[in-house]
Write a structure and sequence with these properties.
The protein has helices at residues 14-24, 56-65, 82-85, 89-98, 105-118, 126-129, 147-164, 188-196, 226-235, 252-262, and strands at residues 4-9, 29-34, 48-51, 68-74, 122-123, 138-139, 171-175, 178-182, 206-209, 223-224, 239-243, 248-249, 265-269. Helix content is 37%, strand content 20%. Helix 8 (188-196) packs parallel to helix 9. The chain has 2 domains: 4-129, Rossmann fold, CATH 3.40.50.20; 134-269, Cytidine Deaminase, domain 2, CATH 3.40.140. It contains 10 helices and 13 strands. The strands form 3 sheets. Strands 6-13-11-9-7-8 form a 6-stranded mixed beta sheet, sandwiched between helices. Strand 1 (4-9), helix 1 (14-24) and strand 2 form a beta-alpha-beta unit.
C-alpha cells in the first residue's frame, strides 16, 4: 500500500482534486483544514481535522496520529497577521528560526517546508499526485493571441522575472506594453479586478502567470482555473498566458471550454 497522504488544504477546488486522485491511487488520505481558509466541501466524506494556522504542535500531532508519511500543501491561504496567527509554542519556535528571512511567499513557504520535514514528514508537490494538472504549451481552446498580445506577454514575462528575483508576485497584467498591475498579497482574482478599472483601451490586455526564478516547485505553483478565465473575461481583457511545465491548470478541458465561451485565449508558453 502507498504511504498515507496528508493534505494541508487551503481554499479553492484543488485540495479536493488531490484527495480524489490519492483515493483513486489507493492511498489513505487525511485532510488538515485551516480555520477560515479551507472550503467545507474539501473535508466532506474524508478523514480530517481543523486547526488554526498557528497550531503547529497540534497539526503535527494530528498528522502523526493519522499515520501520515507524505504531505501535500495545496490551495491558497491568506497570509495572517501575527495577532491572527496566535502561534503555539511550536509555531513560535519556527517563527524564531525563520526570522526576517522570509519576506515573500516563496521564502515563507520554503521555511515552512523545512519545518515540516524536520518533523520527519516528506513534502510532495500536487503535480506528483495530479500529473495531468501540470500546464502544457499551446492553446487551451480555439482562440489564439494576436501579435500585440504576444508582445504584451513578453513584456509581462520580463517584468515578472525581475520581480520574481526578489520573491514578489507570480502574475502581471499588461495592456499594449503598459503594466497595469503586478500581483502582490491580494491574489490573482483581486489583481484582475483592480486592473479592470485601469484599462486604457478596448480589446487588449493579458494576464500572465509564471513561476519565480527560485520557486519552491512543491508548493504555490502558478495556478489558473475556470474562475480565472471568467474573471479575465469579465474585466474585458484578451486572454491568459501561463508558463508551461511550471504551472497548474485546474480542469484543462473546462478551462478551454470557458475560454471559447467567453471569446478569450488561454495559452501555455515555454520559457525553458
Amino acid at each position: 500500500m502507498k504511504p498515507a497522504l496528508g493534505v494541508l488544504a487551503g481554499a479553492g477546488p484543488l485540495p479536493s482534486a488531490v484527495v480524489a486522485a490519492a483515493r483513486t491511487q489507493g492511498r489513505p488520505v487525511f485532510v488538515l483544514a485551516f480555520e477560515g481558509h479551507t472550503d467545507p466541501a474539501t473535508v466532506a466524506n474524508v478523514a480530517h481535522a481543523c486547526v488554526r494556522l498557528g497550531q503547529f504542535a497540534d497539526a503535527f500531532r494530528l498528522l502523526r496520529a493519522a499515520g501520515v508519511v507524505e504531505i501535500c500543501l495545496i490551495g491558497p491561504v491568506r497570509r495572517p497577521s501575527l495577532s491572527e496567527l496566535r502561534p503555539d509554542w511550536r509555531a513560535a519556535q519556527a517563527l524564531a528560526r525563520i526570522g526576517l528571512r522570509a519576506f515573500g511567499d516563496d521564502g515563507l513557504l520554503s521555511a515552512v517546508i523545512r519545518e515540516i520535514e524536520s518533523e520527519g514528514f516528506v513534502v510532495v508537490g500536487a503535480d506528483e499526485i495530479l500529473g495531468t494538472l501540470r500546464g502544457r504549451a499551446g492553446l487551451y481552446g480555439r482562440n489564439a493571441p494576436s501579435e500585440s498580445d504576444r508582445a504584451d506577454i513578453a513584456r509581462a514575462v520580463d517584468v515578472l522575472r525581475a520581480l520574481g528575483a526578489v520573491d514578489v508576485g507570480q502574475a502581471a497584467v499588461v495592456e499594449h506594453g503598459v503594466v497595469l498591475g503586478v500581483e502582490a498579497i491580494e491574489g490573482t482574482d483581486a489583481l484582475v479586478s483592480r486592473c479592470r478599472a485601469l484599462r486604457r483601451e478596448q480589446g487588449g490586455g493579458v494576464l500572465v502567470k509564471i513561476a519565480k526564478p527560485g520557486q519552491e516547485h512543491r508548493v504555490d505553483l502558478p495556478t489558473i482555473g475556470v474562475t480565472t478565465v471568467e474573471a479575465v473575461a469579465a474585466a474585458g481583457f484578451a486572454g491568459i498566458a501561463i508558463e508551461a511545465g511550471r504551472s497548474l491548470v485546474a480542469d484543462a478541458q473546462a478551462v478551454g471550454r470557458a475560454a471559447d465561451h467567453h471569446g478569450i485565449f488561454v495559452v501555455g508558453i515555454d520559457l525553458s
